[in-house]
Amino acid sequence: MTQTNVIKEKSSILLIYTGGTIGMKEDPVLQALTPFDFSQILEEVPELAKFACKIDSYTFDPLIDSSDVEPSLWKALADLIEERYDDYDGFVILHGTDTMAYSASALSFMIEGLTKPVIFTGSQLPIGTPRTDGKENLISSVEIAAAKDADGHALVPEVCICFDNLLMRGNRTSKINSDNFRAFRSENLAPLAEAGISIRYNRQLIRIPEDWSARPVFHKELDTRVSILKIHPGITPQVVRDILCGQETRAVIIETYGAGNAPTKEWFLSIIREAAESGKVILNVTQCIAGSVNMDIYATGKCLKCCGVTSGYDSTTESALAKLFHILGTNEDAAAVKALLETDLRGEISK
After folding, report:
1. Least crowded by CB within 10 Å, which of 174, 185, 201, 306?
2. Is residue 21 flagged as an active site residue?
3. pLDDT-based confidence at 8, cuts 50/70/90?
4. Cis (ω within 30 of 0) for the bond into 62?
5. Spelled out in words, what is the top-level CATH class assigned to the domain 226-341?
6. pTM above 0.70, yes or no
């Protein structure tokens, strides 16, 4: 890793609050947690004033609980970033933790050719509580979003999640802990940066745009007709058929065992073949936190491959879902969808 952190005087950051724990503060009268005014963020987190950058804020109204996040929020975020793209050097999105990995994955596919940081962060404790992790997460996110190299280019022109001193690629990250400050992990890709006494960047992993002067392309067409089938012992034919062969489903993500294994019973493979032959896209991802699908290792994986299942390699479920939403939104042909699924579009898979 290399230590580089240049913040130009005119760097400007747009802080976007969608909802979530980080923006809550205890009301002394009501004795309850209520959202605080992000226009007063420097009063709540005075450390931000030490950065040589301008910080503006935008708050969604109404605020959205993380559990209620829908693709409509992703489109609204894409609209906002597209509208303000030329006005800011980076964007920090404050978001509830439960669905943050889904939102970060979605934005990574919806914005092609990104030249500026889009950093998601949040907290496990409200920012107004004594032991909050929110301040540190926010400070690191703003510093990274404002950081540029000697040529004035953003150090991390990607959609990322910054949490517990780690900067992780958004479409490689999952929430793995509900009651620990180390809530997120990117098991199949090392962090893009680590915040300690200084911020150290893993420059060889950071994706750099082909043309720094080009404006990104925003893809807002999403097709959400995707289901997820988690394989488990005792799964019944009716459950598998209902999910794989549903009329309103264009694609199904199968969460399989280990390196991509699933039952080899004829009833199961028959339903897989039926779904694939009807034009449905079936994507294989592993249930494991780390590791990759390889359907050429074991006979069970080879059976799935022969039935028309596509490998998701080392994709997270969150990333696979967002990628399918994006690809299906602009492609009607199943063969084209499968080809794109096996292509690394935004650093989401390793092949």
Report:
1. 306
2. yes
3. very low
4. yes
5. alpha beta
6. yes
